[in-house]
Amino acid sequence: MYVFLFLKNNFSVVLFLFRSVEHTDGQSVLTDSLWRRYSEFELLRNYLLVYYPHIVVPPLPEKRAEFVWHKLSADNMDPDFVERRRIGLENFLLRIASHPILCRDKIFYLFLTQEGNWKETVNETGFQLKADSRLKALNATFRVKNPDKRFTDLKHYSDELQSVISHLLRVRARVADRLYGVYKVHGNYGRVFSEWSAIEKEMGDGLQSAGHHMDVYASSIDDILEDEEHYADQLKEYLFYAEALRAVCRKHELMQYDLEMAAQDLASKKQQCEELATGTVRTFSLKGMTTKLFGQETPEQREARIKVLEEQINEGEQQLKSKNLEGREFVKNAWADIERFKEQKNRDLKEALISYAVMQISIRLHLVWTNSYLCLSEL
Amino acid sequence: MWAGCPLLVAHLPVYLSVLGIPLVTVTAANTLVVLDLILPNGGTPAGTSSPASSSSLLNRLQLDDDIDGETRDLFVIVDDPKKHVCTMETYITYRITTKSTRVEFDLPEYSVRRRYQDFDWLRSKLEESQPTHLIPVGKSHCLFVAHTMHQGAALLAAGAYEVGTGSSKPLPEKFVVKGVVDRFSEEFVETRRKALDKFLKRITDHPVLSFNEHFNVFLTAKDLNAYKKQGIALLTRMGESVKHVTGGYKLRTRPLEFAAIGDYLDTFALKLGTIDRIAQRIIKEEIEYLVELREYGPVYSTWSALEGELAEPLEGVSACIGNCSTALEELTDDMTEDFLPVLREYILYSDSMKPCILASLFHKALKLKNLSVLKKRDQVQAEYEAKLEAVALRKEDRPKVPADVEKCQDRMECFNADLKADMERWQNNKRQDFRQLLMGMADKNIQYYEKCLMAWESIIPLLQEKQEAKHLSLAEINRHDLEIMVTVERLVPFGILLILEDIVSAATNHVETKNSIDDSGIKYYS
């Protein structure tokens, strides 16, 4: 399946059109094409986050331009920014489409195919409630007694990764700014050499062409920095991915905590039951106190209480069992996806670094030529 | 190096008497020996009708301004500054060492001590005795002029220029002690020494000035003051009246050529000034860029510490950026230490040329005996020109040119020719100097970019390690193309030049041997 995104500007709203082109029998058939707003992409992602907590869900491109250097406007309507966002959204859909689990999701399929009422369909799943509770839980503070070292390490890694990539993007923006300054000032040489050549006889031609090359040099920076933005975008994707990774770790923590609480609850209930059964009071309880003060309860009352407790204990044990199972399933699936993610990350970032290096080389080539001309033209 | 010529021999006595130089001058003796005229291209000149001046002919005959060591027979060095404290004053002297094989020098080697005053004396003597030649002026001249005209402020301004050598720091706080330039600070003395050395070297290089007898005495005499006193009575009036003349007299028939030269020098100095400012600004921007780069590189190292498989590639990128930073630092240092000072010296040099020309002009005017004669000449000239105009209107035959007007015209032509020759010589020098300067700048830039290129190229294999060979990604396709480009680019440092067609036509001296065109339409020489 192929997905392509196109842009349509409508005053203050930017809409995205995409077509799924399906190859049937070697022929490409244009099937659905519909409009989606940025907010609908957000909705899709939130839905996936809720229903696939063990998956590192691909991130969306930034809504507003961050880490800008002075030339780029922070204006969301700036055509360069909009184009880069379009590419980001295309990337987002392609990543989901190529994910072994996510690509089978129904809501995702409908996102690509259902023209109207897609939003309602999503809301009908009742995901909004779950989304809210998820957010609340993620932001809550709690302490896990037996944390899984792998996940703790991974969470730590994702925090560090976010921090280092942010720092990198900030400094890169400053570097771009300075480099822009260097190139542009060289443009002044162009003007001066040209003026100077006017008063010279033998040196005139040489100075003139030297000046021309200075102009070319100065204007080359715009394309260079545009290319560098693509590199920055690739880094940004992984900055946001780090957040998604962190969310999975947090989810695991949550589950672990839940499990521990349930186990703890079960243990105390069992103890209560035991105490009632044997008559020994090892732990302080209000019931115990009142019993002491106001006389012991009747055996029937005690029996009733034990029965209730035993029921609760049974329930509790069932719950704990399923929670344990859930937990193990989660860990298994999450870890599988994390491995997949790690490989993808290594691949993608290596590619990004290679193309960055290649880009640096191609800049240098151009400049070396320019300066050679300056040399030669002074004959 | 110099070939004599029959024409020169014939006219020399007349010319020399006009200038007031005794016939004993070295020049005549040397050139009388060789009679055959040898020109660089091997031919002989057709007869020249106008009286040729010694200097212009000699200049035309001179093969190349780049005098190599073997043909040079006079070497002068200024060094070893020493402070002298006397009851009346404190001053600095410099040692002048001269080595020469010329017959004008009794000994092969001389070592004398001179102070700034002496240099100034030499300069004024040269201007007086050979007013038709441009006297080289070092930075010290600026200081002298400033001193006599506007004290304090001008001195500081001149000082600001002087500090330009070696560092990009602004005004010399070190020089200034309570608003007065510290003449005895090490930096000042050294800067002045360099300027004086350059000054003497320029005279040494000059084909006529280097044979001046005052120059000879300056280099050799044990007691210069005694010699100075000799000529004072005769020449005081001349020397001092420069300033009076500059203020009072207006040369009505100032040759157009000098106006043009004056304008050219003004514009030239302006452009140089602008280039200086731009160069400074570029260096400033580059330094700020460097600061950011120095922070950028290490962040990749920090990241590398977090990663497993990516650790090596990220560390590689960090090291690469570090190398580029170092290369950039070297570039900015070179520009600050080499490019800027030389440029600034040229600005000063061309600044001082214009007053020099005017001074020479007025000296010449003075040499034509006295003002009344010149006024008479102007009157006669005006009459003559009026007649010419009238004739032109009536289309009659031209009247005969009055004899004394003709004589004056001859002298003016001599004067013009001299100055023109010197200007050409200066132009050539300037062209060579700037060619060297600008090529040097371009070369430094190329070196910087080549270093960066190498750094980035070296990490590509590192990054490509363990890449799974899937479908050719876009990046890989680009890389393949670039490998071709890289191969072509490699040839540049080894003497093969990449030239665009329009520049080829401008570079007339180039001879095209073999050339081939690659896909992108660029010709390159093999």
Automatic annotation (TrEMBL), chain A:
This is Sorting nexin 4. SUPFAM superfamilies: PX domain. CDD domains: BAR_SNX4. It comes from Macaca fascicularis (Crab-eating macaque). Keywords: Protein transport, Signal, Transport. It comes from the Eukaryota. The keyword GTP-binding does not apply. The gene is SNX4. Residues 1-26 form the signal peptide. GO terms for molecular function: phosphatidylinositol-3-phosphate binding.
UniProtKB/TrEMBL annotation, chain B:
PROSITE patterns: PX. InterPro entries: AH/BAR_dom_sf, PX_dom, PX_dom_sf, SNX30_BAR. Keywords: Protein transport, Transport. Residues 72-226 form the PX domain. GO terms for cellular component: early endosome membrane; phagophore assembly site. It comes from the Eukaryota. It holds the Pfam family PX. Heterodimer; heterodimerizes with SNX4. This is Sorting nexin-30.
